[in-house]
Amino acid sequence: MLQRPKFISIHVFRFILRQQTYHIHQLRPKSSRPYYNRHDDEEDERIRKRKENPEGHLHLFKSKGQHLLTNQRVLDTIVRKSDIKPTDTVLEIGPGTGNLTVKLLEVARKVVAVEIDKRMVEVLQNRVKASAFEDRLTVLCKDALKTEFPHFDLVVANIPYGISSPLVAKLVFGVNPYRSATLLLQKEFARRLLANPGDSDFNRLAVNVKLVAEVEFVRDVSKRDFSPCPKVDSSVVIIRPKAEIPDVDFGEWCAFTKTCFSKKNKTLGATFKQKKKVMELFKLSEGIGSKEDSAVRLHDCYPSGDGNVEVEMRTDVLETGASLFKDKLVGILKSGGFEDKRPSKLSNEDLLHLLSLFNQAGIHFHDRAKPGDASITACFVE
């Protein structure tokens, strides 16, 4: 008699099936491929990028103008346009992590890099250490505005925006002779450097620079070519010192142009009739300081009837002298045909002629200064 098969519950059947499947998997050959961990790959990628981009792990301060140029084509253009000779020593201001420095080292005899940020200095030195040009680099961890530059033939630099004016002043009015300065500047600042009389951007900055140098436009640079990205675009310009410069005291020239361009679209007649400006120039001309100063030397230009002058400073005497001095200023402007002229439309030759007329009349705008004096840089900054 045949026996009926015993009923197997569904739960038992499923258990048996799982056991068989497990044994089958155990019999399969194990893969030689190690366990894949996505996080390990991500960490390797971060390390690789850090080696290729050493500034990636640095916190860059936009407030200090730490915007690193990363576009290789722009970097190559800067180096090419600088016309660097194999015998040249190049001064680089603000090298950062060395994107431009490494390219300069390939073509120059020596590079002197001035960098104020110690973190950048460490990255730069480590970056160059592995190259064949380590002996060509000298790094000065100093403030470029306060340190005395060693000898150099050229300047090639991506200048921090915040120190553009005083640094350009230090270069063009400094004591170091050099062939040219290729500078990456904020676009607006570069346009002001390049402006000519009659241009809307023409200002005292252009007047002062063009007294001693020629400025050439090279190219514009997009803000997207920097890391981190600044808010504005930049431009590359080349400044070349003139072989011959006018025989003029630089300190007085800067003070004179500051007076003229205080309101560049006002007529010079209106500027030199302002009571505050007249009093300032009058006191400078007469050697008068504060109201407590004694011995007002009015008798030098305006003697009284009896040949005596009040020694005690009195407001009425000071105002009388200033009024006469204003007439003198206006007379000088009229004699040269400058009373109705506007500074924004005058060339350097025009301004030099006007300054000579004032000097011939015994009127000066600043104590005499020498190239490199701090007073020149101070009056250069707008």
TrEMBL record:
The source's superkingdom equals Eukaryota
Which Pfam families would you find in this protein's record?
A: RrnaAD
Q: Which CDD domains match?
A: AdoMet_MTases (cd02440)
What are the protein's UniProt keywords? Methyltransferase, RNA-binding, rRNA processing, S-adenosyl-L-methionine, Transferase
- Top EC category: transferase
Query: Which terms in the Gene Ontology molecular function aspect does this entry carry?
Result: RNA binding; rRNA (adenine-N6,N6-)-dimethyltransferase activity
Q: Which residues form the Ribosomal RNA adenine methylase transferase N-terminal domain?
A: 74-243
Signal peptide positions are none
- What Enzyme Commission number(s) does the record list for this chain? 2.1.1.-
Q: Is Translocase included in the keywords of this UniProt record?
A: no
Return the annotated region ranges for Disordered: 28-54
Cellular component, GO, one term: mitochondrion
Which protein family is it in? Belongs to the class I-like SAM-binding methyltransferase superfamily. rRNA adenine N(6)-methyltransferase family.
Name by which UniProt lists this protein: rRNA adenine N(6)-methyltransferase
Organism in which the protein naturally occurs: Escallonia rubra
